[in-house]
């Protein structure tokens, strides 16, 4: 197996693992931590997608921007998925670094439910 393929597979496995962690945290009402893990689940999948297409990034913001530029603006992937990923990006920052801020179940519940759909869409564009 070549290095690129191994790296893509690794990122997809990390994506799956992060969603499993998010589910455990969600079931234990740890809303901020759930947001963190669902963001990372999506982030790892998007990184795998970018790797598949030889798009290099070094920051989270770079991943978001390159995803938008190469897949959302070109309409390869629908805008709703770009908005969803950007929302998770913003929420992860707010939940991890915002002072005196806690997410609620009402905010987190629809997001965690949408992650499998997002991941399925991303995986449609990855051939390994």
UniProtKB/TrEMBL annotation:
Belongs to the UPF0332 family. Residues 11-124 form the HEPN domain. It comes from the Bacteria. This is Uncharacterized protein, contains HEPN domain, UPF0332 family.
């Amino acid at each position: 197996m070549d290095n690129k393929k191994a790296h893509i597979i690794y990122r997809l496995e990390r994506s799956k693992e992060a969603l499993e962690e998010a589910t455990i945290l969600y079931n234990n009402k740890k809303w901020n931590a759930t947001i963190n893990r669902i963001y990372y689940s999506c982030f790892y999948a998007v990184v795998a997608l970018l790797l598949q297409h030889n798009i290099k990034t070094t920051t989270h913001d770079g991943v978001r921007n390159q995803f938008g530029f190469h897949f959302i603006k070109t309409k390869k992937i629908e805008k709703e998925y770009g908005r969803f990923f950007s929302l998770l990006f913003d929420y992860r920052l707010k939940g991890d670094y915002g002072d005196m801020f806690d997410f609620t179940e009402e905010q987190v519940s629809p997001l965690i439910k949408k992650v499998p759909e997002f991941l399925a869409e991303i995986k449609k564009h990855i051939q390994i």
